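for the recovery benchmark. tokens below, seq after
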């Protein structure tokens, strides 16, 4: 409670502008000969990036400013002789245009609908929004009319850097403080999202008296993932084929926070699963390579050290599985040894199912590198046709580096990153795992997630799952000019677990089934056989526009 001290406030854009003017007119002006000889400074060829938090203890408001050459992709150009235009960090293609890449389109128009911020897709419905601080979020997520989640949202994106330079070694970026939603960028048709996707404007109110609009900064599209969701080919006894294309609805936004670009996806599958995924790209961060710099990264260019960093992404999942009251259950396996009943002298090792109800918040808090049950799910108070508790399973995809040592004076500000999964009772006074004020005073955090976990009972309660997914990034030469998304994707899956009596995707209109005795070229038997007739022509794509500049 109480007022937030003024020194914790995030820096405003106007403050950054004032700092820039101060550096140019006061600091740089005080050493013109040094800047000319060392930087070849001409008043325009230097860029800078601030570090955060601002200082080393509570109350500090001191910042390191890292100086770069002001060229395209300056993040990997620590001060040295300025490169000519089009040097190694430029994203300008090195090859001429050739045959057009494959395109995706809907042969009979979109199969989803958007009304204001509400989306309908097959058995799914949900509302979407954009927080200026935390970015893309979903509310009232329902499948087949039944609520699965009250809220699914991004909470924070943390980066912890290492370097032998002051700026690099002191950097711990909490991107929510800068504004993941605020720095959501307009999308490029055909690259950031499929060309024929539905593009939505977003609005925010930050540092201005009136809202600002970012055109085409969110996209929604159905995507054919190019593989079956399920299939079987039978050539034993009966001859048949059955399958279903894996087509899913994607809601996407992209945020550019400094050198980092994040591709944020929420994906809705036909079997009732939801995926939350983030792909990281953008530029590596760097320091000037000197001394023992190779202890903290790899050499990327002549004087460029790509600095090691950890990335941690935190999500909030306020699930309501079969109702508001849920319990947390863990299923896993163990091998047991038994004698073969038909041959008692022989021993068989067989896997068996293990079950455990996790009764308290302490039991449901799984440290980052600890073993977590492979099937862990929110269980409803109702059962399916086969007598099992209906549930939704949480599955995490993560390659996280180590967490900041808990002995650190600033660790409590990011204590959510201790846990790959923590399940707590839902409380109105615990709406978020962090605060925008934690960035500039992590030593006295406004919100400390560790305080949420106090061993309260979580059996038959309104529960929230807090998920941390992350990866370790050691920049390498292939991060020049910038980092690719391949292999840099983490997140979570929510999957129905005994929630239904059978796979709900069996009711999809996209299913394909035919036997050896049927004419599988007939449209009434196999709709895919009609594609040459019904979907052979491309639609009229809208003209290319872009509102990012």
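predicted aa per position
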């Amino acid at each position: 409670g109480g007022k937030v001290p003024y020194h914790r406030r995030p820096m405003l854009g106007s403050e950054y502008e004032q700092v820039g003017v101060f550096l140019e007119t006061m600091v740089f002006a005080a050493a013109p000969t040094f800047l000319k000889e060392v930087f070849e400074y001409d008043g325009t060829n230097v860029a800078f990036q601030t570090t955060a938090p601002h200082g080393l203890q509570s109350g500090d408001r001191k910042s390191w400013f890292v100086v770069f050459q002001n060229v395209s992709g300056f993040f990997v150009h620590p001060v040295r002789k300025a490169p000519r235009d089009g040097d190694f960090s430029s994203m300008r293609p090195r090859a001429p245009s050739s045959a057009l890449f494959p395109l995706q389109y809907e042969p009979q128009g979109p199969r989803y609908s958007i009304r204001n911020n509400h989306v309908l897709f097959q058995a799914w419905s949900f509302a979407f929004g954009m927080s200026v601080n935390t970015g893309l979020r979903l509310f009232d997520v329902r499948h087949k009319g039944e609520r699965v989640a009250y809220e699914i949202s991004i909470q924070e994106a943390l980066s912890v850097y290492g370097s032998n330079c002051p700026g690099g070694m002191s950097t711990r970026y909490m991107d929510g403080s800068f504004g993941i939603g605020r720095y959501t960028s307009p999308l490029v048709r055909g690259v950031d999202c499929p060309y024929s996707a539905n593009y939505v404007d977003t609005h925010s109110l930050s540092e201005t008296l009136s809202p600002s609009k970012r055109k085409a900064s969110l996209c929604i599209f159905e995507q054919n993932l190019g593989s079956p969701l399920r299939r079987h080919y039978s050539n034993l006894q009966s001859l048949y084929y059955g399958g279903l294309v894996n087509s899913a609805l994607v809601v996407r936004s992209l945020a550019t926070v400094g050198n980092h670009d994040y591709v944020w996806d929420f994906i809705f599958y036909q079997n009732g699963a939801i995926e939350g995924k983030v792909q990281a790209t953008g530029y590596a961060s760097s320091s000037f390579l000197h001394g023992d710099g190779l202890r903290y990264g790899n050499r990327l260019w002549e004087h460029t050290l790509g600095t090691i960093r950890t990335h941690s992404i935190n999500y909030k999942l306020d699930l309501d599985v079969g109702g508001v009251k849920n319990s947390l259950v863990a299923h896993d396996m163990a091998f047991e040894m038994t004698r073969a009943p038909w041959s008692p002298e022989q021993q068989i090792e067989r896997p068996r199912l293990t079950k455990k109800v996790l009764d308290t918040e302490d039991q449901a808090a799984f440290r980052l590198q600890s073993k977590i049950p492979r099937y862990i799910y929110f269980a409803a108070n109702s059962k399916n046709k086969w007598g099992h508790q209906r549930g939704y399973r949480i599955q995490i995809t993560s390659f996280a580096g180590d967490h900041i040592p808990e002995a650190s004076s600033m660790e409590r500000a990011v204590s959510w990153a201790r846990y790959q999964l923590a399940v707590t009772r839902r409380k109105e006074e615990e709406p978020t795992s962090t605060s925008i004020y934690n960035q500039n005073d992590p030593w006295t955090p406004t919100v400390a997630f560790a305080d949420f976990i106090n061993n309260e009972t979580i059996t038959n309660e309104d529960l929230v799952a807090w998920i941390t997914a992350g990866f370790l990034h050691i920049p390498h030469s292939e991060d020049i000019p910038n980092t690719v998304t391949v292999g840099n994707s983490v997140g979570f899956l929510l999957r129905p677990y005994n929630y239904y009596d059978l796979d709900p995707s069996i009711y999809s209109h996209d299913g394909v089934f035919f036997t050896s005795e049927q004419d599988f070229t007939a449209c009434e038997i196999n709709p895919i056989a009609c594609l040459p007739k019904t979907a052979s022509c491309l639609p009229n794509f809208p003209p290319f526009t872009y509102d990012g500049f």
